[in-house]
Amino acid sequence: MQREAIQSAPQAAAYNAHFRPFNGHPGRYSLYDVIYTCPETGGLLEVHHDIDALRTKSPDAWKALIDSRAGRTVWPYGSGVWAMREWVVPDLRDENVVSMFEGNSNLFWADRLGQQLGVPDLWIKLCGNSHTGSFKDLGMTVLVSVVKQMMADGSPVRAVACASTGDTSAALAAYAAYAGIPAIIFLPAGKVSTAQLVQPIANGAHVLALDTDFDGCMRIVQEVTQDKQIYLANSMNSLRIEGQKTVGIEIVRQFDWQVPDWIVIPVGNLGNISALYKGFKLLMDLGIITKMPRLAAAQAERANPFYLSYLDDFSEKVHVPAGQTLASAIQIGDPVSYEKAAKAVQLSNGIVEQASEHELANAAAKADLTGMYCDPHTGVALAVLEKLVARGEIKPDDRTVVISTAHGLKFTQFKVDYHDGALNSVESQYANPPIYLPADVKAVKEAIARRLPD
Q1: CA pair distance 115, 13, nearest whole angstrom
Q2: The CATH number of the domain where 324 resides is what?
Q3: Is residue 3 part of a domain?
Q4: Integer Cα distance of 423 and 419 in angstroms
Q5: Does 120 fall in a domain?
Q6: CA distance 368 to 408
Q7: pLDDT digits (tens, 9 = 90+) for 349-378
């Protein structure tokens, strides 16, 4: 992107945003304070924007402005996140934006798969087509940019830290490295893929592999970040949500500012579905859209606390020991963003559903046969999609978007084991192992003849 444009890029200082308690408790805190929860109640915070100020620009003017920026080369607007800077962190100075052209990911029309499933207007938002291979880049560009400004203005922060099941650590490590900020990563030992483990290592982060699960890592990082010199980068930090909410806005923009009927998204710590709702709610508040899509949260059956809470109408938060699942990034038994996610499902007339290991693996493989390359978490969402179509929740003429949260190349071993028939609890219905043959033309022709349709 053209950094020469940095001096001429207009600032968004006419607008403002601050932290406030999500549960309605009074309080107002600067986005540049080291604070993650309400000091009085311990509840989550949210970033609150001055909607009245934003409404001084008309819906059509906002649409024209965002359309004129996205994907261009003027710094920092080419980013899918910073094209919407007034809606994210309006007073961030240009020189502190830490961006690697995140967002602008392909909205893929899954024509063949949609026809097979009975929902032809099916689209896959390929968030894995991003710098570090997952949607976590959208939140991390915001968080690391704010930290850079905090440090420039004399904050005691010296490093950023997160607990992760893989994708968060990759995004934090890359953006911190780009900004020149030390990163500390807490991973559950043996519970992330090799590709996910090596990403923060390659970017120079301090990687600590702990003998626990994600929830255990989360407890430790929360204690460590009580020291205000180490800044917490997990999704309980509402700055992450501000970046991640732009995926929903981007989907609407890619549909020429029309709203899909359904969005299906795999969930674990629940920040992503909370962010989706927040993005759509902003568009509603600004008069840019007039309806909310229905949100479907997809959980792995072995790590399904949100699904269990949904079955009881969210009367209380359910905690479970997260069982081992192929969808390792959502192997979480005590999700941080429960309150926000429950509200998102309720106010969007949404649904929570689960998928078994067998269902998620075969759903991913089925989609791969139509040209995709699905990670297991997208497999969870696709398996849930099949269930919702089969029972008539999603109608044949509903425009439906599935959020693919990460790139399948991060989970190569999952693919290999599936096609080798080596996954526990999975019968590989679409296994396609290689055929080993001698270097003999006759044998090759016979093998081809057996495989090609008559």
Answers
A1: 48
A2: 3.40.50.1100
A3: no
A4: 9
A5: yes
A6: 10
A7: 999 999 999 999 999 999 999 999 999 999
